[in-house]
Amino acid sequence: MAVILCGGEKGGTGKSTTSVNLAVMASLVGRNVALLDCDKQGTSRNFIDRRRDKGTLPTPDCYQISGKHVYKEIASLSERYDDVIIDAGGQDSVELRSSMVAPELTLMISPVQASAFDLETLIKMDELVETSQVYNPELLCKVLITRASTHVKIKKTDDAIAFVNELENIKRCDSVICERVAYQYASNNADAVVEYEKNHYSAMPPYKKKSYTPKASIEMCSLFKEALGIEFNLNEFIDLETSIKEVV
User: What is the domain range of residue 99?
Assistant: First the structure.
């Protein structure tokens, strides 16, 4: 069982994108999943509503809650579902703090971009994690670097990794999510990125399929395994002509 919280101090870093992708992928491998949206913007809830309106299956159950009793809802959902994914939004809120002290929590993911504005917020987040560990000693928080540049000459990701490694109470995800248009297209379609790239691949002419690499899906599968401890068989899901192991 996994209870995963996506939250942090900075908005626009990919918390909802991470939440909905993990929730849908867990559903795709047969898990009974609850997605808990604690963000007043309701981005994850809106994603699930659009997905349900399209009739896309599987669609995780989604709940929205606010206030200081989020930890009680987490406890309740964890008794009824295999996995619970929590989107707490991009601010230091009572919902975020309530989620962080839930004893059922197995991992907190705090997405950030490799920019000074984002990284500076981790100093306060590091202190918040330390405070929360007084009430929840098992709390494990990992920083997920998102929207990383794919340009080989841009070293911001390396600098961000070095910054995170200096923090006392926060670790770093081995996975890195790059800036790729596939995430935007997938979100617009209310799809997980693995679903979007599967459909994109299926529509390709045969000559293009031989050189295609679903890079966004590879990244998200890496995070999925790291967060939930479950393998997502991308080769089998997309039915690629070339094995992932050969093209990565």
Answer: 2-193
